[in-house]
Every structure is written in structure tokens, then in C-alpha cells.
Amino acid sequence: MCSVPxxxxxxxxxxxxxRCAEHRYLPRERATCAADGxxxxxxxxxxxxxxxxxxxxxxxxxxxxxxxxxxERTLRTDNTTGYxxxxxxxxxxTPEYLANKRAxxxxxxxxxxxxxxxxxxxxxxxxxxxxxxxxxxxxAYVPIEWRTCSVDGCGNKLNSAxxxxxxxxxxxxxxxxxAPKCGEPSCGKTLYRDNQTGFCQRHRQGYRDAYNRDYYDRxxxxxxxxxxxxxxxxxxxxxxxxxxxxAQNRAARYAAQVRRNLAASAGMDAFDRELSVAYxxxxxxxxxFYCGSPATDHVDHYFPLAKGGTDHWFNLVRACDTCNNAKYxxxxxxxxxxxxx
Length: 341
Prior knowledge:
The protein is an all-alpha fold. It contains nine helices and two strands; from the N terminus they run H-H-H-H-H-H-H-E-E-H-H.
């Protein structure tokens, strides 16, 4: 029923105002602010009794000016001194106290000044402890007289931290009288005595590539084991780096996936592919074939695709994330013999 006295009109169930259409827009009685001289209307959900400008107690009290002559700053409600911050004096801040404090400060012995002075002639300015130039601000950009290489006929400038007296080109002769030369026929640069490549930095790239290939061939097993352990310890970083690489090299990723699919489907007909799909569904809830873990996220190829394995049903097993990453391109038999069970 309508909430207006004397009106018996029935309301719909969806009516939320409590009035019928005839009395819907009748003015309602709204409370006013309780502050003296303020007639601002309050909202229906106002539970303080005051409008927004008079919401806090400090805003309802008359403003108090600072008691200092000529100061018109308004004081806070909780101010008990009667003065603003510029004119309030603590009780302990007496003239006698200030005089005694100055006497104690001037009587205290000063520590010795151990700071360095500017290295420029005639300048006595002190330097900061983190100054590395040895000069003050006024003389920091004065040109420095650089030393030159001590080898006859070489005019290369030397760094201030150079203790050998020779430039990079002639530094090798500092350790040996018969310093080696670069192996490139057209280059005669002097090499360090401990140089193992026989080439200078400019011509060692070809040697470095051959050395890297030979090093990888000699330490292939150790490098793969190190890579496997790194992926186990830093699994999140490995996934993030792989995702970033895939996003930036989509063409290479797509080509690699095509090559993998071709290798997986070698020697398979339509019936073999249907059987492979059905077998993947059949072993979907099986535990890990290598460690028995119930949490399996991958279907692994027992004989890896990189070594001639295919996608036939008899080459598929369930594997957990740890075993799948650790096995990598290893044959399943070799992986089990390494003691993963």
C-alpha cells in the first residue's frame, strides 16, 4: 500500500519508493545541519547531523587567531599555547639554556680536518671523500697532461691508472722480449704473453668459432647435464625465456614445429594416426612411466624424435614435467639406467 496517509492505492512488487504514481514526487522532509546559522539540507543517510563543511568538531568552533601582535594565523582546535608554531616557545627554551648550549658547543674540540686539497697549483679547496678526480669544482675540467707510451715512435696516450708505461698495442713486450705477433699475415700487432689463440682481438673470431665447436664436442655430456639441472632449478625463468623467444621468432618456431611433425609422422598411415590419437586418450590418467608420479603433464616419446623415433602408439608414454625435461633427447632406456627410478 502507498505510504502517504489516507491513500490506499496498491503498489507493484517492483516499487521501491513506497509511494503510488500520484504521490511519488511529493516533497520529503529533510533534516538541516545542526551547526549554528547553517541551514544546509542533509542527505537521508547522514548519521552525523552536520553538513560536510561542519562535519568535524574543529570546524564548528569559532576560529582563534594567534596571540602574537601582528600575526593573523588561525590556530588549531587542540592548540593550548595560544600561539602559532612561529611564535610558540617551549617552556625549557629559556635564555639561560640557550646561552649554556652555545658555550658547550664552542668549547667542544673540533676533529682534525683530514680532507684532501685540490691538486691544482695554488688551490687550497677541500675535496669530498668520494672525489676521484683530485680536483675541486672550479678545476675539474682543466685539461690533464696524459702520458704517452714509452715505446719509441709510439704516441698513444696512456690512462691515468696505467702502471706499465705502455699502450695496449705494446703491452705484450712488457712481459717478454720476444713478444708474439698476431697470426694474421697482414697484421703485426703485439700479443699478450698468455695469449692462447695466436691472434689479436680483431682476427680471433674464426679461431673462437672453431674452438667453441671443439669444446662443445668434447664436453657435450657435461653441458647437457648442466642445462638439465638449470632447467630444474630455474623452471619459471626457463619458461619465461622460452615464451619470449617464441614470441619474437614465430617463423623459426613454426618451421621447427613443422620439422618435428614430419619426423613424428614418418612411416605412418591414416590408421596409425587414428590409433595414436586413441592411445593418447587411453593413457590420459596413467602415472609417470619413469618415476610413477601421479601428476603427469606430457605424452613423451620413449625413443625421441630427434633420434629417429616416431609418433606410433607403442612409442608413447605418460611423463611428468620433471622427467620430460630431464630426459630431453635421451632414449628412455638410457634415462632409466641413469637411476631415475
